[in-house]
Amino acid sequence: MLDLGRTFLQSVERSPSAPAIVDGDLLLTYEQWLARIRCVATGLHDLGLRPGDRLLAILQNRWEAATLHWACQFAGVVIVPLNWRAKPDELDYCVRDAGAKALVFEPVSADAVLESSAAQEIPCIALDHAPGGPLSFDTLLDVTPRLDSTLAAADDISLMLYTSGTTGRPKGVPRRHRQERAAALAHVAQNLYRRGERTLGVMPLYHTMGVRSLLAMALVDGLFVCVRRWSPSQAQQAITDYHVSCLYLVPTLYHDLLADPGFDSMGVRTVTKLGFAGAAMSDGLLSRLEQAFRPELFVNHYGSSEVYTFSIEQRAGRKPGSAGRAGLNTRLRVVRLDATSPEAVTAPGEEGQIIADLRGDEAFEGYWNRDDANAKSLHEGWYFTGDIGYFDADGDLFVTGRVDDMIISGGENISPADIESVLSLHPAVDEVAVAGLPDLRWGQKVVAFVKPRGCVDAQALDTFCRGSDLVNFKRPRDYVFVADLPKSPVGKILRRKLSAGEYTSLSSPSSNVPTKE
């Protein structure tokens, strides 16, 4: 299999004059971009970085970040992208855990770099004259490239992503060139991308969705439109200006796009393919997107940093909530919640933990320096995802929550997803998240946190739930109306913050619902 550097050369050889990347006023063709990529690869070598060394990048989605990613693929250096909002202690941990040899940053991340003792021990390369960087990114560009061929092979490590670390220390996920290329090829196939597609590069390049968009566009000689910070109005303008043809976003960003006062469905008609991942999409948002975009393809992609694709549903509206069938490079099973054997499979309709075969072409091989995490998640050649779900009678997968998010009320196991799907269909509900709160009688009680978009009270929502097919013991016992739902940088709802009371509540005529069964 080709490494990623040679993969990029394919695109240059096929379409040297095709537009490759846009960032503000900058537009580069594949041939022009390759020249800059080769300069940066040579510049990294001149700084002393060698194949296998790790380079941290703390950057927004700008052309330099995308260029650095590709330069590392040519130089054989392992790119380690981090959230540009990272705090100094997070930076300390990742620099030392990764054994980073250098770091690239920009003004927005300068304070964290300056306050990180670990970062100050390695060469720091600054963009835009950011303080604390004795080296400038411009020096990487201002060299004569001497790397005529790539220094990496398909089995070398391409990048290491760090998981969000919401339940403890972040975990490094190293991925090889062949795993990254296989994942990108499958992404192209599963989203039916054609040559010359154009996408918004809005999902961060420290997240697997962002990396996949970057690689997929190169595979089809497409255009990557950099979006440094999310703005619904600016995103819509970019779609119009650059005739964007495909979107791959988390549900939160789709929600923001539709909620923007200036949203115009006619202005986004160049978009024919929608894809989402990172979190479940409510039935209500799914319906609104189909009406607004009328896409040819609407892909629900379920995956992770460890095994990029678990499953794919190419017609998300066909069976709302379904994550579809296993992806091209994947085998899936659902096993009992307490199982550590891949043979303890559940019956159709029975909830359990979703697991994936580690022999799949996209699967990682284990966490970096984390034997404890490997012992918890890797069993007999299978990756135990920590996600709960079931296969229905047709063989379609439904993801109902996380093992850690499971609500146990009165001895019943309750997943938030079913309840959220029902409540999302109420016309006065903008967003909703369900969590379990302590209760003396039941152990935990089901509480719905609702961001409204109209006049509604708890009684109305309780009546709505009673009129649905939601079984009674799953019905929320309390409703909390909030200004916003707490989310991670990539749009995942943080239920732990809701349970801890970290939200801004809104006044409501009544938050408690009748307890009559």
From TrEMBL:
Q: Which Pfam families match?
A: AMP-binding (PF00501), AMP-binding_C (PF13193)
E.C. numbers: 6.2.1.33
Residue ranges constituting the AMP-binding enzyme C-terminal domain according to the UniProt record: 419-492
Q: What class of enzyme is it?
A: ligase
Which InterPro entries would you find in this protein's record? Answer: AMP-bd_C, AMP-bd_C_sf, AMP-binding_CS, AMP-dep_synth/lig_dom, ANL_N_sf
**AMP-dependent synthetase/ligase domain: residues covered:** 10-368
State any single GO MF term: 4-chlorobenzoate-CoA ligase activity
The yes or no answer to whether the keyword Transport is present is no
The entry assigns this protein to a family as follows: Belongs to the ATP-dependent AMP-binding enzyme family.
For this entry, the protein name equals: 4-chlorobenzoate--CoA ligase
Q: What is the native source organism of this protein? A: Cupriavidus numazuensis
